[in-house]
Structures
1.
Amino acid sequence: MENVKENQETIIASGYGFSPVFDDVYFQPCDPVAESRYVFMNHNFLPQRLRVTPTFTIGELGFGSGLNAIITLDLWLRVAPAGSTLRYCAVEQYPLSLAQLRVIGEPWQALFPMAHSLLLSHHYQDACSQAITIPLQDNKTFILQIFVQDAAQALTHWPATVDAWFLDGFAPAKNPTMWHPSVLSGVGQNTFWGGTFATFTAASDVRRGLQAAGFHVFRTKGYGQKRHLCWGYRFSNPGKF
Ligand SMILES: C[S@@+](CC[C@H](N)C(=O)[O-])C[C@H]1O[C@@H](n2cnc3c(N)ncnc32)[C@H](O)[C@@H]1O
């Protein structure tokens, strides 16, 4: 996709995104960086795992503003050993344009200069049509691919088995399609044994769907106004216990 077109539905400002279609925010506006670190990095144990796993694959349902990707890339750049490869595969049905990403991501430029510029350069648009391989210093390699389609569809041809998932597709009550049991089963099928997921929601249907998808699921304290989140690891074939 040469040019990702303006997503006219989404309301954006510096550090803020809201979808009137789904009636939900992209992230909690008070401290999105702390929220992403708490929910997605820490509950996938990325600060520890990225230090010791030379080839690591992240899967994300809902690329949105790219904030989770920027924070992951920044972490990996700082802690992963020389020679490591990070593969980041995401799906996004309603992509923001590059110009919109630059507006929404403006506060993160100073915090994560290298990750911000790598993602919000031409790599974003290129990665929306094919996997982009970016060689970096210390013989590290970053591979980025964003499927511009519905999550259920993308999961039928997911390109790599995933070590850690970010399930970030708006609240289940507002966007049930993203959390349909068939989507969660697709997540399970594309996960290594012992691979993990983290999500901001702990809705009971989501937990049940993830259990049916072969994950051991834990509910714990959520971020900010969210009482609970859930995380887990894959321990069986989807549907088999
Ligand atoms: C909460 S936002 C994601 C925030 C994002 N992870 C970030 O770091 O900014 C949810 C995203 O899921 C996308 N989405 C909603 N339904 C989808 C679907 N069925 N398939 C793919 N993407 C979907 C929305 O367009 C939106 O960008």
2.
Amino acid sequence: MWFSNYKLLEKKKLTNDVYEMIFSDWNKTSNKPGQFMTFMLPKTWFGRAYSICETSNDKYIFIIKRVENGRWWSIEITDLEIWSELKAVWPSGHFILKENNKAKIFFATWVGLAPLYNQLQSIYDSWLKYKTKLIFWLKNKEDLFYIDKFEKLKEKIDFEYKIYLSKENDVNFEYWHITNFITKENIDWFEEFYICWNNMMMDECISKLENLWFSRENIHNEKF
Ligand SMILES: Cc1cc2nc3c(=O)[nH]c(=O)nc-3n(C[C@H](O)[C@H](O)[C@H](O)COP(=O)(O)OP(=O)(O)OC[C@H]3O[C@@H](n4cnc5c(N)ncnc54)[C@H](O)[C@@H]3O)c2cc1C
């Protein structure tokens, strides 16, 4: 296991509880699309994993949600001052974009978008031309972020996206949960599935896909 120090260069509040945090990668550790890094708590040395959302010129960009009723790490990391330095394990994990030409669909809820966006970024950077689609779930319109980035993806790759809001009914968005999207007609075009979020949502997605005869080997998932 390899550790390095990473310095917090920028921090931006994207919504009420989601922060974009940019750390230096001066050691030039490289990542595969979809991997995470494990940051160590400065005092206790407990680790917490955060998926790399984007990479840019020796920087790693993360999107981190403050979980108010958790064990405090998400609060501690989002409270960090600029120029703070954290020790982290180099990028690791097996939730990696497959190198093939299969049409891919990505199911993300909230900051579960991070590894999927990193995978879409790698498709964008390599000009790959197969069909891609993102299904993104949030609660309300005020929780939305990165729409400008989704629009940019459309300029270069075969990409579409659909947003589901579960607590707000608005004509411009789909209502309720992204698992509603999983019907034979909607997913017939796609050959590979990438899903990221919690156990419950993941299990529901996977069982719906399997009921539609999608083979488990084409369903890739990361649980937060
Ligand atoms: C591989 C991997 C990648 C991850 N990548 C990210 C990431 O890119 N961004 C990110 O914000 N978190 C990510 N997480 C979650 C992160 O590691 C922490 O669990 C999270 O920040 C909460 O830590 P905590 O100590 O505040 O609360 P904890 O005590 O760890 O968690 C409290 C409760 O909140 C749930 N929870 C965990 N993460 C979230 C979340 N994001 N939103 C709502 N509920 C949550 C937990 O399941 C638990 O029930 C990732 C986890 C894993 C395993």
3.
Amino acid sequence: MASERSPWPVPADAPAMEDLSKCVHCGLCLMACPTYLVTGLEVESPRGRIYLARAVSEGRLEMNETVQAHWDLCLQCRACEAVCPSGVPYGRIMEHTRAQVAAAPAEGGRGRRLRRLFLRNVIARRGILGPLMAIPRVLADSKIRTAAVKTRVIRVVAPLARLERQLPRRVGPALRPGDALAQPEVVRGNAVLFTGCVMGEVFGDVHRATGRVLARRGIAAVATMGQVCCGALSAHDGDLDFARKLARKNIDALEATGEAPIVVNSAGCGASMKEYGDLLKNDSKYAERARRFAARVKDATEYVAELGAEVPAQFEGRVTYQDPCHLAHAQRIRQQPRHLLHTIAGCEDVKTDASDVCCGAAGMYSLVEPGMSATLRSRKAEQFRLHRPDVVATANPGCQMQYEAAVREAGTATRVLHLLELLDEAEAAAEAARQSP
Ligand code: SF4
Ligand code: SF4
């Protein structure tokens, strides 16, 4: 809980002094922070932001728009947390700082309120999100899109132009709870596939590919009914009460599936679900259940690598793997995706500079902080122009969309795939080669 001297509200959800005081100001996190690397400013570094959060909590600093702007520019990528020798839980500090901001009677709060309404009433409601996402699905490979880009009409509305650049060339059918996945001939184990919100609507093909990869290893995966959005976007926005509500719904829905692993192919969702225990630690009815649930959560790359089954895979091409922040920094999963890539025969692993530095997608960041997001995207585009990979592989929907824009900026004929899609394609190709006379 924040200091008694703090004039700011939300005592229950304000950043804990215990967390804030762990920072010893050593500065070892600075060179890992994308916003510090771009600006060179202390206030845009993790150390600077923690200092501001502590000063606000202790009542030494007013929580004005300038202070909030420094927090808003943070991508919540958690690269700082991964390198901090003092174990500062930066992700938690920032979520609680944003909860404190949201409850303060600040100027300029309209945008924040709108964002919260959107997250609660659109993103987290499949009945509304589903029909809305039919629009990009239809537009993805349409002549309307081509004409709007060619005539530059799309540029009239800047946020629409940004979304258009991120939209894949093809958006397959959605995959929602209850939908069928490929099943193995001989069942060796069971798993639950977490479908998510935007992930299930825009990247249903990634879910189907994941189902096939698991089926080849004898795992019967089911997209269990009743599951909802993981709540990560709401938590990052500081709407912890709503994130808790969604977490409870997921626990209720998936508890009946016993001890089966909960496989997540969106790094942001997985990171958040692995932290349900922390999110619900003060909820006497759910605390223990949340801990048990979190222990079952596995990123898809982590789970497939653990299965260790040798399924032949063939892909002739140059592939660069770009770490999603919430996989590399929040879940500390770096080796497993690379291991899977190295199991693919014919595949050349193309290493770029700063493959683990944030691409600038960061949930809704590319919409609310377009300048910094574009700068980070351009740095990726530069690397793609230099190395000209055939495929950019990653493991998070927001990153996939940002890399669509980056390869377009690079002007290369590079495909953007989830690593599980690449693996599925490579395994199907090896299977086809075996069967051909
Ligand atoms: S967050 Fe960690 S690494 Fe960064 S200044 Fe504080 S103690 Fe040092
Ligand atoms: S979460 Fe990322 S952007 Fe934010 S302070 Fe840490 S390293 Fe910098």
4.
Amino acid sequence: MLRRWDSPTPFVGGLVEHECPRCHRAVELPFGSLCRACRDEIERKAARWANAIALASTVVLAIYVTLRVPPEPIARRVGVVAVVVWFVLANMVVRRTVRELMK
Ligand SMILES: [Zn+2]
């Protein structure tokens, strides 16, 4: 819904919080955002979870590809590419999910 031009409510961009909503540390922040320390902590935890889960699932996929893909060179190369792509995508998805859940 669009805001009326003469609305008494200020724009959200003009609102300022005086403490972090997560750690309650006194800082000046735009409305709805977290302080630098909280963002760094969330990013560190998300990266740790993403690396662990992506690595574990990639190992399982690599074992499956090793056992099931025929021993032809092209099939092996496609399997290796699939494993690498799986690691990258799993890492991105888990990182994003953990980041959103921890906010
Ligand atoms: Zn904070």
